[in-house]
Amino acid sequence: MQKKYMCVDLSVGSGRIMAGLFDGNKMDMREVYLFDNSSVKVLGSEYWDVYYIFNKIKESIIVFKTMFDGITSIGIDTFGTVYGLLSETGELLSNPICYTDPRTKGMLKLCYSIFPQNEFYKISGSELVELTLPSQLLSLKLQNNPVFYSAKTLLMLPDLLNYFLTGIKATEYTIASTSSLLNLVKKDWLHEVIDVFGFNRDMFTNVVMPGNKLGKISSHVRNELLCESIDVINITEHDTASAAIAIPSEKNDYVFISSGTYSVLGVETDKPVIDLRYVDTLSNEGCFGGNNRIIKNLLGTYFLQECRIVWELEGTAVDYDSIDNLIINTKPFISFIDVENTDYFVGEHMPNLISEYCRLSLQPVPYTIGEFIMCITQSMAMAYRKTINQFEEVLDKKIEKIFIVGGGTQNRLLCQMTADCTGKIVYSGYKSSASLGNALVQANASGEISGISQMRQCAMRSFPLTVYEPACTNIWDEKYGEYLIIVDKFNKAQRQYK
Known about the structure:
The chain is of the alpha/beta class. It has helices spanning 50-68, 107-114, 117-124, 133-142, 146-150, 157-166, 173-176, 191-197, 219-225, 239-245, 302-313, 320-326, 350-360, 369-395, 412-422, 433-445, 451-462, 473-497; strands spanning 3-11, 13-22, 27-37, 40-42, 45-47, 73-78, 83-86, 153-156, 171-172, 182-183, 188-189, 207-208, 212-216, 231-234, 254-259, 262-269, 283-286, 292-299, 401-405, 425-428, 466-468.
C-alpha cells in the first residue's frame, strides 16, 4: 500500500507543502500547496505570523486529503533560530520575533562580556551571532519585556507548530542545535550557559531525536477539519538537516552545499569539531542519528534574488533559465565581491551595493546584468572554495566531491563554476531536498525504511543526479589568489574605518 507523507517545508518568504508518496522502492514528490511566508513589521519590530502559518498548514491538510485520499503522517521542517514563548497555561505570549529584528543589535558584544567567546565556543561548538537565542533572549531580558518574564515554555518554530497540531511540547534535536544553547555531545541543553545568561532553564523542553513519533493531531484539530487521527513525526526539523538526508552518497568523502537564500556548507562528523582558529567561522549542528555536521553559513542566492527584484522593477525579468543567455559575451574574472561580508551587503538596492564595493576595492564596476551575474556567481564559487579549504584543514582530510541540493541546483552556472573553482566533481541533486529528507524520515519512523543508509539509497533511486566535471582549473587557481587579496584588503580597510 502506498504511504502518503505530508511534508511541510517552511522557508524565509514561502511555505511549501509536498506529498512524499512511497511505493516501497521510490519516493515520488509532488507539490500540494504553496503560500507566502513574509515577516510582518509592527511598530518597528519584525515578527513571523505563526497563526497565519498554522492556518495554512490546516488548509493544506484538507487539500492533501482530497488529492490523495488520506495522510500517513505529517512532518514539519523550518529555518533555524526562531522560537515562541508560552505562558503557564500554554498560550503563545507573542508572535515569534524575526531574527533580523533590530532589537538584537549590539547584543553579541554584550553576550561575550557575560560569556567569553572562546569559552563559549569550547562548550557549545557554536559560532555565536546576533540571530541566535542568547542574543535574542538577552535583548528581551534587558528591555524588561513582560513576555520574557512571563514565559514558562520555549519552543523552536517547528516544535511550536507541532504543539499547535498535537498539544504536546517537545524540542527536536536538529532544530535545537541552531539555538547555540545545546550540548551536542550530551544531546541536552547547556544548562550551565543558560544559567550564566540568567535565562529560566525550566522553560526549555525535553530534547527528542529525529524520527520520534510525537503524537497524533489533537481532537480540536480533528473536529475542526473533520479528519481522522494522523501521526505527527519529529523529523529532522531544521531544513538544512533535512536536506542533508537527501544526499545520495554512501561514503563520507564529500561536502554538501544546501543552496538557497543562504548557502550552508557542511561535512558530517561523528562528534563536534572544536578548533579555536575558526571560532568566528565554523559551527557545529546536529543531524540525523545524533551525529554532527561542521558547517559554515554564507549568503547564497540572496545576492541574485535581491538584484532580480531591482531588475524586474526596471523592466527586465531574470530567471535561472535566462542566465546562460545573459552572460554570453561577458568576460569572466573582471571583479569580485566578498559574499561573507554580511555587514556591508545590507540594503534595498543590491546592484548599487555591489557597484560600490567594486569601486571602493579599485575593481572595474559591473554595468550589464550579465556582468553582475558573472561577478556574483564567481564570487560565490570562490567563497565555496575557501570554505572547503577550511574544512580540509580542520578535519585533516581530503574532500573528494561536492553535493549541491536545494533551489540553487537550478543555477547551472553556479554548479559548473563551483566544479571549476574547486577542482572537484559536483553532483547536483533534487531541488526540494528538504522536503525529500522530511519524507524519508517519516518513512523511517513508519518502518518502511530503516536508517540513514537506506534513506540515501532511496534518494538515489528516486531522483537522478546532474554531474559537473571541473574544467579550466588553472585560471581559477590564479584568480583565486587575486580574489583573496581583494577581499582581505577591503576587510582591513572596513575594520579601520569602524
